Amino acid sequence: MKRIxxxxxHPLIESSTINRTLVEALSKHDQTTIHNLYQAYPDFQxxxxxxxxxxxxxxxxxxxxxxxxxxxxxxxKEWQDRVLEYGFAYGTKGNKLHGKTLLCMTSTGSPExxxxxxxxxxxxxxxxxxxxxxxxxxxxxxxxxxLTLYGSRTAIEEDRLTPHINHCLNKINALLxxx
Length: 179
Description:
The protein is of the alpha/beta class and 179 residues long. Helices cover 36% and strands 18% of the residues.
């Protein structure tokens, strides 16, 4: 049976309607473990061995985080720097994550137009998330195209939150049903 690890990296989850609602929906899957990094490591002292155990136990890893100033929250970067060690996640014997799936579910406060390139030829979100995509390639993860809710400040009023959550859940169900 496939198991999902949701690595929640939101420093203010208590005041986040969007990410909190998404994580609550994701938690309804029996195979899902929700791991709130800011709750577990308020001092940023990541327990590397515990995090490795979680990664080894799960098949699908989902990073859930808001985009802050065109980047990930700092604890998610700290987690990557500490946990994805040579000999574990990469290097000659670092194949422990090979074949696992990685999916990012992000949100932005600003509308999608803020994330358009100056030449209006597309979104810069792929560029912003390139470090995670490259990390996934280097560590053997199967990287899935990210799911982003733009303009989260108005998503509820504009009735965009429920369709976004349904889209995320459909993606999870598809991943769970893949051979």
